[in-house]
Amino acid sequence: MVLRTLAMPADTNANGDIFGGWLMSQMDIGGAIMAKELAQGRVVTVRVDGMTFLRPVAVGDVVCCYARCVKRGNTSVTINIEVWVKKVSSEPIGQRYKATEALFIYVAVDNQGKPRPLPAE
């Protein structure tokens, strides 16, 4: 798990569910944490592939981002990120389910923002 947070009322869409853009932002933050660790420095998000929203998220749900490196290039890493939800404020309490997933691609960059090689594993 790279990130755990609480879905709040300010993060809702017009239907009262948590806004998909907010979930995507949490995924990017979580993925960047792992990418920075692998790159041992600064990274930038360059692409998101296969974003799939499976189930809605409600206010008060605990949102957990899980990340796994699925590909490592010369300057880039591809991170699979899944968002799992734990119901703590609404029925059924304690239920867990996967809400969304996607592949996030990050590139390691130097201080000038130019791609740089990843360190050896």
Automatic annotation (TrEMBL):
InterPro entries assigned: Cytosol_ACT, HOTDOG_ACOT, HotDog_dom_sf, Thioestr_dom
Domain HotDog ACOT-type: 1-112
Single GO MF descriptor: long-chain fatty acyl-CoA hydrolase activity
Domain of life: Bacteria
GO terms, biological process: acyl-CoA metabolic process; fatty acid catabolic process
CDD domains documented for this protein: BFIT_BACH (cd03442)
Keyword annotations of the record: Hydrolase
Gene3D superfamilies: Hotdog Thioesterase
Gene Ontology CC: cytosol
Protein task: Catalyzes the hydrolysis of the thioester bond in palmitoyl-CoA and malonyl-CoA.
UniProt xrefs under PANTHER family: ACYL COENZYME A THIOESTER HYDROLASE, ACYL-COA THIOESTER HYDROLASE YCIA
Membership in a protein family: Belongs to the acyl coenzyme A hydrolase family.
Name of this protein: Acyl-CoA thioester hydrolase YciA
Source species: Klebsiella quasivariicola
